[in-house]
Design goal:
The protein is 28% helix and 28% strand. It is an alpha/beta fold. The radius of gyration is 20 Å and the shape is globular.
Length: 309
C-alpha cells in the first residue's frame, strides 16, 4: 500500500522593508503592527528595543520574541537572519505574512536573494522608504550615496516618507528623481510611515528581481552608556553638535525626574520624545556613520563631556 503524499506547506508571503538610516522604517513597522487587520504578522527586526510598541498591545516577552495581543509578533534577528527565518517558519503558528525590516545600511538585494532561496517563503515585495527631507543630501554624500542608490534601485515600491516636510513642488521633483533612479518601481508619498497595510502586506505585485550586489560594508558604529540622569536639553545640544558624518543616532536616557526619554538624530534633525512605558531608563546610545570619516574617539569624548556635566 502506497504511503499518502506528504502535504507541502504553502509558502509564507514576505515583504522586505528597506531604506537608509532615519527614513522611517521603524515608524512604518509600528503602523503596520497596529493595523494588521487580523493578519498574524511576524516582523524580523535588528533591534526591537527601538520599536515603541504600546504596553497594552504586548501580550508577552520571551527571549528574543515579543508577542502582541493582536496575534502579531516581533523577532530580534541580530546577525543570524537565516536562523531567524528557519525558527519563524518551523514554529507551530506560522505567520500569515513575514516582514523583514532591513538595517539602514543593508543591501535589500542580498536579503531578497536569501528570501528567494527559502522554499517556504514567497517574496512578495521589496519596498524602500525614502526620506523626502534628506534624500538629496544622502545621494550627494560621498559615503552614503552608493548605498542609497542600491536601496532605491532594488525596490519594486518606493515610499517617499516625510512628504509633509517638503514643499509640493519639491515633492513633485523628488518623484521625478526617483522615477529616474528606479524606472520600474511604483511610487507613493506618505507621512509618519502611514502606508496602507494592503499595499505592503497584500499581493500588490511590487516584486523586484535581485541584481548585482554591492559591497555594503563601509559603515561603523559607536555606542555609549552612562549611569546618571541626562537633562533632555543637554542631550539635544549634544546631538545637534555631533559632526555631519554621524548619519543616525538612537538612544534612551533618564531625565532628572527619573522618567525615560528617547532621543534621535537623522542627518541634522534632532528629536526628543517620551520613551514607551516600561523602558529601561539606563542611558545608552548608538551612532552610525560611514567608515571613512567615522571617529569613535570624537564621539567618546563628546559623550563623556555630556555625562560628566
Amino acid at each position: 500500500m502506497r504511503e499518502p503524499p506528504v502535504p507541502v506547506p504553502v509558502p509564507v508571503p514576505a515583504t522586505i522593508l528597506a531604506g537608509y538610516l532615519g527614513a522611517g522604517k521603524t515608524t512604518t513597522v509600528n503602523h503596520l503592527l497596529r493595523h494588521a487587520g487580523g493578519r498574524r504578522l511576524l516582523v524580523l527586526v535588528n533591534d526591537f528595543g527601538a520599536l515603541p510598541i504600546d504596553g497594552d498591545l504586548i501580550a508577552g516577552r520571551e527571549g528574543g520574541v515579543i508577542t502582541l495581543a493582536n496575534g502579531c509578533a516581533c523577532c530580534q534577528v541580530g546577525q543570524d537572519l537565516l536562523g531567524a527565518l528557519a525558527r519563524a517558519l518551523a514554529g507551530p503558528a506560522r505567520p500569515d505574512h513575514l516582514l523583514i525590516e532591513a538595517s539602514g545600511i543593508a543591501d535589500p538585494v542580498q536579503l531578497a536573494q536569501l528570501a528567494q532561496a527559502e522554499p517556504l517563503l514567497r517574496l512578495d515585495a521589496v519596498a524602500t522608504l525614502v526620506d523626502a527631507a534628506g534624500i538629496r543630501q544622502r545621494l550627494a554624500d560621498r559615503w552614503a550615496g552608493a548605498t542609497v542608490r542600491r536601496q532605491i534601485g532594488a525596490a519594486g515600491l518606493l515610499v517617499l516618507n516625510k512628504a509633509d516636510l517638503v514643499a509640493p513642488e519639491e515633492l513633485a521633483a523628488l518623484c521625478a528623481l526617483l522615477a529616474d533612479l528606479a524606472p520600474g518601481a511604483a511610487r507613493l508619498a506618505t507621512r509618519q510611515g502611514r502606508v496602507a497595510p494592503d499595499l505592503l502586506l497584500g499581493p500588490a505585485g511590487w516584486r523586484s528581481a535581485p541584481g548585482p550586489t554591492g559591497a555594503g560594508h563601509g559603515y561603523r558604529s559607536w555606542s555609549g552608556r552612562a549611569g546618571g540622569a541626562i537633562p533632555p536639553a543637554a542631550m539635544r545640544a549634544f546631538l545637534a553638535a555631533l559632526p555631519e558624518w554621524v548619519h543616525r543616532v538612537k538612544g534612551i536616557a533618564p531625565d532628572p525626574a527619573g522618567s525615560a526619554y528617547a532621543c534621535h538624530r537623522v542627518g541634522r534633525q534632532v528629536a526628543i520624545e517620551a520613551a514607551p512605558a516600561g523602558t529601561d531608563p539606563a542611558a545608552r546610545i548608538v551612532a552610525i556613520g560611514p567608515a571613512g570619516p567615522f571617529a569613535p574617539a570624537v564621539l567618546e569624548s563628546a559623550w563623556a563631556a555630556l555625562c560628566g556635566s
